[in-house]
Amino acid sequence: MTETDRNIDVHAPPDEYYSESPAVRTPAVQRSRSRNYQRVRQQFSEYQPETSDDADADRIPGQPAGPRRHTVRRRGSVDDRTMHPRRFLVDIDRIEKQVLEQEDTDGDFQITVEDSGPKTLKVPTASSGGYRTFEIRGTYMLSNLLQEMALARDCGLSQVVIDEDRLSENPVNRLSRMIRTTFWNGLVRCMDESGIQAVCADPKNSTPDCPPIIYVPYDDQPAYEYYKGVARDLSNLNIQVVRLPKDITPRYVNSINEKSGILSLAADVSYDANGRLVYQPLPFVVPGGRFNEMYGWDSYFSALGLLVDGRYQLAKNMVDHFAYEIVHYGKILNANRSYYLTRSQPPFMTDMIIKVFEALPNNSDIEKERNHEWLRKSLDAAISEYFNVWMSEPRYHAGTGLSRYYTTGYGMPPETESSHFDHTVEPFAKRLGVSVEDYKKLYSHEKIHEPELDEYFVHDRAVRESGHDTSYRLERRCANLATVDLNTLLYKYEVDFADTLDEHFDGHFDWSGGRETTAAEWRVRAETRRKSIDKYLWNEQKGLYFDYDVVLGEQSVYESVTAFWALWAGCATPAQARRLVDVGCRKFEVKGGLVSGTEESRGVISLERPNRQWDYPYGWAPHQIVAWYGMYNYGFGDVARRFAYRWLFTITQAFVDFNGTVAEKLDVVNMTHRFQVEYGNVGVDFKMVPREGF
């Protein structure tokens, strides 16, 4: 692969993308290897929804029909174009100062509905050479003006001509365009020399007592040589390059918690004609602007968007990074940081592999052969992850045949704020007669042993491995739970392995783990897991799937929207699906999308029992997207579209009213991103213009 080929879609979308119709670019994202999925997709490709202006169009199944209402035609975001579209001649310094002084009344360098300015500004027109002015009105247009000036300033301009159409652009089109042309580029990271400098500037990567550290697998000599060279070239940063041991034990990981660092990822490795190493780290995408490391399940959902926008190389790189982590670190990591070496995340790799494989160019025999080899290597890594992580102790529970989130780390998770566990530790410190800080040091260094705290942190780390950190659904019991989400994901792995082996490897695959595996074996595994899911997780009386406590031997009573994941994976029967959709819509569908869980399950909130970010009333993109695909899987396309509309409307509303904000999570009950909850809300803190969103 040439350098041009490798980077064509990493730093900007291909030019031809903009003339490509949505119908051409989306099938690879919408297809799945599940035969049931393909059958249902065929049915829905022939279905065209009827338009309706009555109240039933927005009615939740199970609720009575409302009164008919008249259709109200609302004014669009873009007026009809005239023969001479208006353009503005903007002196950036002067107009920016005027906008902020007049309109930014709360001083946050954003123009939002919460500002109390007049929301109108006269701006010079380009056709008059700046002599005449025209009034720009409203929060949305003024915030877009502020954003366009900031983007022009980024390009080194002091003056810019801005089309009125750009300021009044349909917000859905504008958000899609900004994701495509700006946000992705702002979220790209790379472990090359330039990227390492950004990593070193991240406060997570160094402390006054410890310089930046890059950890490299014991058997990756090219990576070690490359990063030793980077350390020499950037000697002012005092970077240390450390080889990890062959056997990365939990005790070793605990021993380096106070010397945390970044972990190397995959690269294109070759040698030039003189035998010199050519090492090119592969770019990847992070979930939000404050991150510099690649995360686990976030990467799957990012990859879906990258493929829609034609950025298949970035999505492929992220699969390659996952495979590298499995080979060298034993698992797909929570993120590529040293203190995550004992912790994984929800497994989406097989579906990610399939979708990327379908998007790769295959116009020549060479490309087809290269793609097939990539599929083989990626699938081999995923099979290793399946057996060595999810089907091994302590995560696999033989009594039920199900799996659970269960990490092998020691002590307190070091990535949290220093005071995060003070309230938990305080009673034990008082009992021992030492300060909280001294107790935390003694406990972390294994100088004291406290079984009650040990159990607490086993569950706390498991919650973080689940990706749902935190939620009262999982608190103080996560490692005991065979969860719906994890086991439906593993069912999907088993079905994907069977289908891919049948379609691309004649039903047989030589796994690097030392034996041949067959499609027939994977179908047996999938059916076995489906029966266990039915036995332990499905509740016929309540019409929902529930997590199962393997220690207590009973189902949890927490009602979680992850029940819909069974539809995404395809492990529900048609009767179960109908019941689940009927019950689930009534419990989880709210005005702004799907809520994480029910208010009743969450319980009463108080100062002593604060809200958790993965509970009611919050909604997250992964829950929405999995549910949409699940609904389509079983023929509930109308429900899927309604779910999607609610969520996308909520996102767009925040984008319009709050200066282009794209937030990490949303209060879908109250339709807002403005709330106080643990860990804040990534994507809302920026000046002038959002450059990456979340």
TrEMBL record:
<dbReference type="Pfam" id="PF01204">
    <property type="entry name" value="Trehalase"/>
</dbReference>
<dbReference type="InterPro" id="IPR018232">
    <property type="entry name" value="Glyco_hydro_37_CS"/>
</dbReference>
<comment type="similarity">
    <text>Belongs to the glycosyl hydrolase 37 family.</text>
</comment>
<dbReference type="InterPro" id="IPR012341">
    <property type="entry name" value="6hp_glycosidase-like_sf"/>
</dbReference>
<dbReference type="Pfam" id="PF07492">
    <property type="entry name" value="Trehalase_Ca-bi"/>
</dbReference>
<dbReference type="GO" id="GO:0005993">
    <property type="term" value="P:trehalose catabolic process"/>
</dbReference>
<dbReference type="GO" id="GO:0005509">
    <property type="term" value="F:calcium ion binding"/>
</dbReference>
<dbReference type="InterPro" id="IPR011120">
    <property type="entry name" value="Trehalase_Ca-bd"/>
</dbReference>
<feature type="compositionally biased region" description="Basic and acidic residues">
    <location>
        <begin position="1"/>
        <end position="14"/>
    </location>
</feature>
<feature type="domain" description="Neutral trehalase Ca2+ binding">
    <location>
        <begin position="97"/>
        <end position="124"/>
    </location>
</feature>
<protein>
    <recommendedName>
        <fullName>Trehalase</fullName>
        <ecNumber>3.2.1.28</ecNumber>
    </recommendedName>
</protein>
<feature type="region of interest" description="Disordered">
    <location>
        <begin position="1"/>
        <end position="78"/>
    </location>
</feature>
<keyword id="KW-0378">Hydrolase</keyword>
<dbReference type="GO" id="GO:0004555">
    <property type="term" value="F:alpha,alpha-trehalase activity"/>
</dbReference>
<dbReference type="InterPro" id="IPR001661">
    <property type="entry name" value="Glyco_hydro_37"/>
</dbReference>
<dbReference type="GO" id="GO:0005737">
    <property type="term" value="C:cytoplasm"/>
</dbReference>
<keyword id="KW-0326">Glycosidase</keyword>
<dbReference type="InterPro" id="IPR008928">
    <property type="entry name" value="6-hairpin_glycosidase_sf"/>
</dbReference>
<feature type="compositionally biased region" description="Polar residues">
    <location>
        <begin position="39"/>
        <end position="50"/>
    </location>
</feature>
